[in-house]
Amino acid sequence: MPNLARLIQEGVYSPMLSSPPVDTPTNWTSLATGAWTGTHGINTFGVHLEGERFEESHRVNPSIFPPFVDQAPAYINELCQAEYVWQAAERAGKRCFVLNWPGSWPSTLESSAVIDGSGPFSSVLARLSTAHTYTTNGETGTVPLIVRQAAASLESALVISGEGTLRPDGDGWRAEGIGELDDKLFYRLAITASEGINYDTVTVYRGLAGDDALTTLTVGEWSPWLWDDFPTRFGQVRAKFRLRLMHLSADGGEITVYRTTLFNTHGWAHPASIADELIEDLFVQGQAQGRAGLLETEGDAEDIHPIMPLCQVYESISDQARGLALTARYLAANYPWDLLMVQIHAPDGLNHEALNGVSPQWKRYDTVEAERYWDRFRAEYNVLDRMVGEIAEACADDDTLVMVVSDHAAIPTTRTVWVGQALLDAGLLAYKENESAQWVMDWANTKVVLGDHPLAENVWVNLKGRDPDGFVEPGEEYETVREQVIQAFYALRDPETGQCPVALALRKEDASFLGQWGDRVGDIVYYLTPGYATGGSICSLGPIDPQAVAREHFQWIEEGIVSEYFDAMHGIHHQYLPNVEYGGCSNRAVFVMAGPGVRKGANLPVPPWTPDVVPTLAHLLGFPAPAQAEGSIIAAALEEP
């Protein structure tokens, strides 16, 4: 990883500790606000607001991993209680570019640019489909075109969304390969001879019978950007594209038309005009390189079928990294700026998917297979290093401060546990069966609520006067229940290993040294012993399949544990303390910094915390830290503290 190695050599490196819970929404928020979890209030993926029903937690997953624009029921920055660094910087007169950072969208900035996703090179937010080639030559990977004689010309027809083929049917056209589709997406091609001899011109009409001419093309010519409304599983989406006549035989019988990707320009760029600029920049680059269309991902043949439903675009990690680098390069080259922040979620997914494969503690560890897993990690880290290098080359010089940070890491897992069983056995957690023989919360009898998924590793007492179904009295009874929870956790033992799967359980007020306070943190916080993990197939709020408890309580992890996003998840981070190590891996994040005012070639003696990054950044760039920032300036990293 030469680019990271160069930054470390020219600056400082240290492991970094995450603000618990050690997960994505919590720590990208701490990294952007300088605040601890209890202050910014983003307490994992499901944020519980005091007084609301627990099953109505505010899920922020879709705002971090959006399937398309405008699909998130809750946005991190609408729930966050702390000012972001880009807000503080803009308040101080700085111009910011914020790319793909959890909590940055919807934009709250005025004079700065925010991009949700990686940009039009490959982002699922910007692209309704891949590019398509329509042709009469029958090449693999193309959409068939058929030419027939019409009254005044030859003609052909296509489905502009690329979702099927139109074939002659009497005087009309018949759609094949698709279900019911708005025929407004059927485009007619009139093939004519401008001088009455050889066919050399194609006029494109919207609709099969209409006279709405959109553009007229000769061979090699591009249309202007055209717009249409496309029905998708997310509703009607207006998108733009260009057409190019690639080939037309003199007799008009052979024709090839290229259609660029369908681009959505709404809901992922601020200001909105940036979306069109980024798309046009990729078009210009693509033509300069002699491409058929834009400089854009070619996709993966195994993941993208030539004829595909709209809004089913695949984006690989390498594509995402390239897209972010291209977006950063364009913005930095065309606008003045002071602060650029770029986030990519990798290698978190690979940790979840494959980390056990490199751990000798795993039940199915194999030395030969381990090398294959290591190759995957090396490849992905090289992609990330290349992205860092491309952004630094395009955006940084000797006077630029560069930071590379992560929100957390992960450790392997070997045994499952559901700590709810301890609370059930102690008579603290109560369920009842529904009509499907599944367990649902028995709110009239449960003294506690276990928040393992989607809430944080917290336990709430079902407190009278605070919670909608609360009946535990404040004061002595409340304190007794909390003590019983802690004792039940510590009394839990794995019958096979003899270990307690709970490493630490604390009253909230005793966990302030971990940033745990405020009304969005449970009454008790707990952390699992490294190696133990709770799978996402059990949501302790219910409904729970009793058989899932049998599968996921004190069992060896072989294939992996089931979660919301993975059929077999291996590496875990959010259930542990930030400094734990296991199976040759660490849960600690990464901090690298180089540039003016930074020591060179130094390793920090004490790991910083994620809330320390923003105060350090603001200090070095010369503007006040965000209003709720609580972290410390990392003085040991500076030439003149």
Can you put this structure into words, describing what you see?
This protein is an alpha+beta fold and 641 residues long. Helix content is 23%, strand content 21%. It has 14 helices and 34 strands. The strands form eleven sheets. It has a five-stranded antiparallel β-sheet, with no helix packed on it. It has a four-stranded mixed β-sheet with strand order 22-33-1-34, with helices on one face. α8 runs parallel beside α10. The mean pLDDT is 93.
Query: What's the total count of β strands?
Result: 34
Strand-residue fraction? 15-25%
Number of helices: 14
**How is the largest sheet built, in terms of strand order?**
8-9-12-13-14
Coarse shape: globular
Mean pLDDT: 93
Q: What does the radius of gyration come to?
A: 28 Å
Distance between the termini: 30 Å
Structural class: alpha+beta
Helix content: 10-25%
| Contiguous runs where pLDDT drops below 50 for at least 5 residues | none
The major β-sheet equals: 5 strands, antiparallel
Task: Write a concise synopsis of the structure shown.
By secondary structure, the protein is α+β, with helices and mostly antiparallel strands.
Task: List strands and helices in order, with pairings.
Layout: H1 2-10, E1 12-16, H2 24-33, H3 37-40, E2 46-47, E3 58-59, H4 61-64, H5 76-79, H6 85-91, E4 96-99, E5 113-115, E6 132-135, E7 143-144, E8 148-149, E9 154-159, E10 165-169, E11 172-176, E12 186-192, E13 201-206, E14 212-217, E15 226-232, E16 235-241, E17 243-248, E18 255-259, E19 263-264, E20 269-270, H7 273-288, H8 317-334, E21 339-342, H9 348-354, H10 367-395, E22 402-405, E23 415-416, H11 420-425, E24 431-433, E25 439-441, E26 448-450, E27 458-461, H12 476-491, E28 502-507, E29 524-528, E30 532-533, H13 546-552, E31 581-582, E32 585-586, E33 589-594, E34 602-603, H14 613-621
Parallel strand pairs: 1-34, 4-5, 4-21, 6-7, 23-30
Antiparallel strand pairs: 1-33, 2-3, 5-20, 6-18, 8-9, 9-12, 10-11, 12-13, 13-14, 15-16, 16-19, 17-18, 22-33, 24-25, 26-27, 27-29, 28-29, 31-32
Helix pairs in contact: 8-10
